[in-house]
Amino acid sequence: MTERPSTASSSHPFTQSSPSLRPNTSSGPGISVTSSSPTGSRTTPPPEPRRSSVASSASSPRPKAKDSSSTICRNITIYGYCRFQDKGCAFNHDPHSQKQQSGAGRGKFNVDSPSFTPATPPKKTISPGAADAAPFTPKQNHSTGLQHGFENMGLGENVYSPTRSRRRANKMKTTANAAMNAYDFTVGAPVNPYAQTGVDMFYQPQQTYQHPLNYHLYAPLAPYPQKLQPFQKNIHGFFLSDNLREELQKKADATLQTLPAVSSILPPSIEEYHQLVPLDTSNQKSAQVFGYPSWAYKAFSSEDGNAYALRRLEGFRLLNEADIRIVQRWRKVLSANIVTIHDAWTTTKFGDSSIVFAYDYHPLSKTLAETHFGPNPRYPNPTRQHQPTGPIVPEQVLWSYIVQVASALKVIHSAGLAARVIEPSKILLTSKMRIRLNCCGIFDVIHPETTRSQESVRECQQEDLTQLGRLMLSIACNTPSAVQYPQKSMEYIGRHYSIQLRDSIYYLYTGSTKNIDEYVKSIANQAFQNLDSALHYEDSLESALSRELENGRLVRLLCKFGFINERPEYDHDPRWSETGDRYYLKLFRDYVFHSVDENNNPVVDMAHVLSCLNKLDAGVDEKIMLVSRDSMNCFVVTYKELKRQVESCFQDLSKSRR
């Protein structure tokens, strides 16, 4: 009698009681599945003892061994094919044959089996004593207690009770006559299953184990790309769009931009701010708006490390220290369309007497003067050969500007202040159709007399509305000189824009609007349209953010793999990363990143990588097969077991830090 080879085990390989085995290369063709963790030593199963013919004939007959030709090959079950099918593999490669044989064996009758004869049931008789017994009546305390439990749930009238079945029948007849159909009945108070104490027959106790969420499934949020073909879906659907990513990266690069200290003539620091970078596009002095030459810088704060924009007024001398305290009131004015001011102080580090204001820094921002009237305007004026049939600047853009500036003015006027900087050069376009009022509070410091009486404040607020009308008049006509010819400008607006926009700009420009509240009511319909557009844009940003939701989790998981895989030595063991549970993680890394196709070409499939890593992080019960690099040994494991091994190995590495 020859020895039988050990068969592959399909149980989980992660048991402490199983012996340690290395890949067995002495077996025949095919892949052998082991059920133990590799420890570096090679062991073979002990051979079965040979039995003599006398002992075999005297003992009980040995069960007949299962024919290998009727056993389905594991390669067919796992891969769907067996590359040793025509090279001597003794297992069955037809997955349908076993089902047909098993089904045919169960479905046929055996002519040699005995016929079925039902047994005669015994006759049931009632004793004379039991016939005279009283009828059964349930105990009152049991029915009352059960009924009381249902009444607490609000179902006391709908639970069967033998003591009031007749009364319930009469009530049901009355309800059926009054209802529109037979199913119209009234239930008591709402059911509260959490209010019950003990075990209830209808509400089973909550299970202690809950299956984890399917974190490996990417569910995109609305809005969705419209009418995409299957071949149009690629890896970019998992991540941020290229345009949005590039815009954010440009803003981050502009924020971190600095100047060499050798070539800079600016002071190294001012108060808590350092590393000053000029933001002005021209080095020519201009005192058109504030009456003093002003300069803009970007600087970093040494307190919080954030970047801020500094506005410096050259040659200003503060006469009264109390005039600068108005900045404290401006710090409390918070609006989405206002650049927040943080601090103000006087300094002589620039070589003269200057006052500096610190604001929030919005990188890559442009003023409305640069956007519409600069060298490369957003809406260029047409040439004589190409005269437009419609307006140069779209009406939706004008309404968006009006609504946003009006929103900022309403917040400022409600605080008892006035903006006084409604100028194209002092309004920033920070992002897509997003404008903010800049340099608020400067006029209140350099001209403090305008804030000392309520009458002067109201006059400044009225001037804000007039400046808004001039701003929109020049942008609608796409020229800053439109305010010099108001009659012709209004005629142009009347020909190319709606009546509401024409009247709105006219009332602002002529001063017919008394206060901001009255003006906001007149443009309420446009404000709702602008709000709807803003919400749509918010949805698109949230949808883009959802694509980056899982990246942080996957990075942490990859960092753990980097700590464990290919570690040269740990705890004086140079083979730590090649033994024990670490060997499974090494094979899993090969399964994810080092797979090859049938032509031995590398498989570079990002969807496969993302799916495997998310399943591992979620710890699902899905099984995978990890094959050794010599293709002579494999392990069938689950993601849940692999996750447990990752956490265990990472905890071992973390012990040295405690």
Automatic annotation (TrEMBL):
Assigned protein family? Belongs to the protein kinase superfamily. PAN3 family.
Mind listing the GO biological process terms from this record?
mRNA processing; nuclear-transcribed mRNA poly(A) tail shortening
Tell me what gene encodes this.
PAN3
Record text on subunit structure and interactions: Homodimer. Forms a heterotrimer with a catalytic subunit PAN2 to form the poly(A)-nuclease (PAN) deadenylation complex. Interacts (via PAM-2 motif) with poly(A)-binding protein PAB1 (via PABC domain), conferring substrate specificity of the enzyme complex.
> Mind listing the GO molecular function terms for this protein?
ATP binding; poly(A) binding; zinc ion binding
Put simply, this protein is called: PAN2-PAN3 deadenylation complex subunit PAN3
Q: What does this protein do?
A: Regulatory subunit of the poly(A)-nuclease (PAN) deadenylation complex, one of two cytoplasmic mRNA deadenylases involved in mRNA turnover. PAN specifically shortens poly(A) tails of RNA and the activity is stimulated by poly(A)-binding protein PAB1. PAN deadenylation is followed by rapid degradation of the shortened mRNA tails by the CCR4-NOT complex. Deadenylated mRNAs are then degraded by two alternative mechanisms, namely exosome-mediated 3'-5' exonucleolytic degradation, or deadenlyation-dependent mRNA decaping and subsequent 5'-3' exonucleolytic degradation by XRN1.
Note whether Lipoprotein occurs among the keywords. Answer: no
In this chain, the stretch annotated as Knob domain covers: 564-658
Q: Which residues form the C3H1-type domain?
A: 67-96
Source species of the chain: Tuber borchii (White truffle)
* GO annotation, cellular component aspect: P-body; PAN complex
Which residue windows does the record flag with biased composition (Low complexity)?
1-43, 52-62
Domains as described in the record: The N-terminal zinc finger binds to poly(A) RNA.
